């Protein structure tokens, strides 16, 4: 079984205080107060609320982030995205 397409999902009813580290893709629909470190992609859904920094290969944002975003490849911000912080990526 290959982990290449493995995605961790954090539902909208979940609140986490601390750091999330993953080698794969993480989809966050809940609340995070802390850092999100992904070796793969970070997908922040419409109901996502992050207070902290996000680091990933690419980041897709539909929710709210209060923190800095560092993407090794690209950042994709949807119309519903709200970002308060610095963003750094090859492509936006």
Account of the protein in words:
With 92 residues, the protein is mainly beta. Helices cover 0% and strands 57% of the residues. It has no helices and 13 strands. The strands form two sheets. Strands 1, 3, 4, 6, 7, 9, 11 and 13 form an eight-stranded parallel beta sheet that branches. A five-stranded parallel beta sheet has the order 2-5-8-10-12, with no helix packed on it. It is globular. It starts with 6 loop residues before the first strand and ends with a strand. The model has no long low-confidence stretch (mean pLDDT 94).
Gyration radius, to the nearest Å? 12 Å
Percentage of residues in DSSP E strands:
over 45%
Average pLDDT metric: 94
Structural class from helices and strands?
A: mainly beta
Give the terminus-to-terminus CA distance.
33 Å
Order of helices and strands: EEEEEEEEEEEEE
- Our count of helices gives 0
Q: Work out the helicity level.
A: under 10%
Features:
92 residues, mainly beta, 8-stranded parallel sheet, 5-stranded parallel sheet, 0% helix
Compact description:
The chain is mostly beta strands and 92 residues long. It contains no helices and 13 strands. The model has no long low-confidence stretch (mean pLDDT 94).
């Amino acid at each position: 079984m290959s982990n290449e397409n493995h995605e961790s999902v954090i539902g909208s009813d979940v609140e986490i205080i601390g750091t999330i580290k993953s080698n794969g893709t993480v989809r966050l629909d809940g609340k995070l107060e802390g850092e999100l470190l992904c070796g793969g992609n970070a997908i922040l859904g419409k109901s996502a609320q992050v207070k902290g920094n996000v680091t990933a290969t690419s980041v897709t944002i539909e929710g709210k982030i209060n923190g800095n975003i560092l993407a090794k490849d690209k950042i994709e911000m949807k119309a519903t995205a709200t970002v308060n912080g610095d963003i750094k990526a090859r492509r936006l």
